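Deliverable D5.2: sample structural annotation.
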Amino acid sequence: MLLELEAPIKICGDIHGQYTDLLRLFEYGGFPPEANYLFLGDYVDRGRQSLETICLLLAYKIKYPENFFLLRGNHECSQINRIYGFYDECKRRYNIKLWKTFTDCFNCLPVCAVIDEKIICMHGGLSPELTNLEQIHRIMRPIEVPDTGLLCDLLWSDPEKDMQGWQDNERGVSYIFGPDVIANFLKKNDMDLVCRAHQVVEEGYEFFAKRQLVTLFSAPNYCGEFDNSGALMSVDETLMCSFQILKSQEKKNVPQARPRTPKYVN
């Protein structure tokens, strides 16, 4: 359940069925195997082309298994994508059996990656139950996402700047955690950065806790409702991080006010 990867690598956040924007990401970063990729989950739901999105990503994983990596997001879970669009898309375009096949696939996806022992990546965030990385190695696959516990938190938790420690998450699932939690985790594990997705951020990326955590979101103009950009993060051989910004095609030439804080996405 824990991938051990090496730089250089490009990291992408939520895609949510925005297939044309996924193709634009590859145009920016280079189509595989020109570059190595790590995706942080949430490939399906919300957008109109979840099937094209997940099929392309899985095809690249099969074609380039040592260069292309997919983590599980909270929407790679039957309880969630049964409600938020993927089930309906499978049923409308093909059949329910296809959705069940994808469910079996999602139940086997890894949930965390470490790049050169210094950057830890997951979809959601940290967990109060996480004391060492061996705990993630010990999670058995296939597995459904439980309502509580380590696996749930890795896919659902969120950072919160105006607090310390842990509190219940307003999503109704998992926790929010403060900058002190991030600092303590990184120090204990001799790491430099937490890289996660799971929240809309206006520029496609946003640092937190004195640049000890970064949120990536790679679906611009999310759901047609947010005037956000998407981003991918490039990590070079020295672990220097840089960002490529994907503007909304619909609104890239229209100046508009944008929300300044991360938005919660179920």
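Annotation notes: The longest strand covers residues 230-235. The longest helix spans residues 50-63.
The annotation will be released with the project's public dataset once the embargo ends.
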